[in-house]
Amino acid sequence: ELIEKIAIKKDGYIETYLVNETAENVWFDQFRVMSTGPIIVQETHYDPWGLEIKELGYQYGGIKVNPYLYNGKEFFTENDINVYDYGARMYDPTIGRWSVVDPHAERYSSLSGYSAFANNPINVIDPDGRDIIPVHGTWSNILTWGNLGGITKASNNLFKDNNPGVSYSWSGDNFSGARTNAAIGLIDHVRTQMKSEDFNGSITLVGHSHGGNLSIEALNMMAEMDEFNDVNLNLLTINTPVRDDYQLSEKASGRVNHVNVYDEKDPVQSNGGNSTLNKLFGVFSRGVRTGQRLGQQLGSGELGEAGRRFDNARQNISVDNPQGVGGDFHNSHNRTDDWLNKTKTENK
C-alpha cells in the first residue's frame, strides 16, 4: 500500500495524474484521492428565535467555547442567565423578548414594548437592540417586508451599503398630511440610527409604494439640515407612484443617490396619484382609515394617475416577470429575484 499525504496551505485547486513511468505494465488497484477538511471545533444550531438546539450541536474537546452565537451576539450563561447582549439591552431567546421596554416603542403601537424583531425573527433583525431602514407604504406595516435579505443585497450592489438598517413604521394613511407627518418622524428615526455603533456613514432609505414618496419628502428636509451634511444619502424606491408633488428638490437631487424599481403592469402604482375630482369628493374608498379633511370620508384617500419612472433618478429598473391584476402585483419589494440581477449590472 502506497500513501502520500500533502498539506494544502492555501485556497486553490490541484490537478492529479496517475502515471506509470516505467517500461513495465503496472496495474493500480483502488487508487483514490481523498480530501480531509479542517476539524470542526464548534457547531451550533438554533430555532428562529435564537434558542440553541443542543441535540444538534457539537463541541470539540479541549477547545475554548465561542460565546458569540446568534446574530453574532455574545451569549451569557453565568448563573443560568442565558441571554444575548445586544448592546442597548439583553435578549432572552427562551421567550423571544427583550429584558426592558424598547426605548422607541411609541413608534410601534401595534407591538409590545418587549417584542423582539417585530415578532418576526426570520425577516427582521435588530443590530443594536434599539430598533428594528425600510419604509412601508399605504395601508401596510413593517411586516410587509418578507425578503429583507434581498433588499440588503440590492442596497449593497447599488450603494455599497450592506449594514442592515432600522425599519420605520408609520400610520399608512393615504393622505399627503399623513405622509408629511411620517417624513418628520422618519428624520428622527434616522437620527437614532446615526447614533448606533454600527452606523457606517451612509443612510439608505428603501421605500415601498408611498413609503418611497414620504422618504423623498424626508430627504428634501434633510438636505436643508446641516447635521446631515457629512452623511451619504441613498434612496431606493420600489413600486412608488411617481407624482409631481413628490420629487427630490434641486438640493436633494445633488446629494441623494436615487435608484427606482418599477413594474410596468402594477395597477396600484399607476393609480397612486391624487386627481382634482378625488380632492374635492373623495371618490375612492378602501380600508378603515378615517379621513382628515372635507371630502375624505371613512376609508377614503387619494386616487389618480401616477407615473412609474423618476426622470432624475440615477437609474430606473424595470422588473422582469411583471405582475398585473390577477398576479402578485405591487410586491416587487419581496420579489427581488425579478430585478436583483440588474442592480449588479448597474454598479459595475
Low-confidence stretches: 276-300
Number of strands: 11
The main sheet orders its strands as 7-8-9-10-11
Largest sheet: 5 strands, parallel
**Would you identify the CATH architecture of the domain at 133-346?**
3-Layer(aba) Sandwich
The CATH topology of the domain at 133-346, please? Answer: Rossmann fold
Apparent shape: globular
Strand content: 5-15%
- SSE pattern: EEEEEEEHHEHEHEHEH
Annotation keywords:
single chain; 348 residues; alpha/beta; Rossmann fold; five-stranded parallel sheet; four-stranded antiparallel sheet; 6 helices; 11 strands; 18% helix; 12% strand; globular; Rhs_assc_core; RHS repeat-associated protein; AB_hydrolase_fold; T6SS_VgrG/RHS
Describe the structure.
By secondary structure, the chain is an alpha/beta fold. The chain has a domain at 133-346: 3-Layer(aba) Sandwich (Rossmann fold). Helices cover 18% and strands 12% of the residues. It is built from 6 helices and 11 strands. It has helices at 148-159, 176-194, 210-222, 250-253, 276-281, 340-346, and strands at residues 42-43, 58-59, 74-76, 83-85, 90-92, 97-98, 134-135, 202-208, 232-238, 256-262, 315-318. The strands form 3 sheets. The chain has a 5-stranded parallel β-sheet with strand order 7-8-9-10-11, with helices on both faces. The protein has a 4-stranded antiparallel β-sheet with strand order 3-4-5-6, with no helix packed on it. A two-stranded antiparallel sheet has the order 1-2. The radius of gyration is 26 Å and the shape is globular. Mean pLDDT is 82; it is low at 276-300.
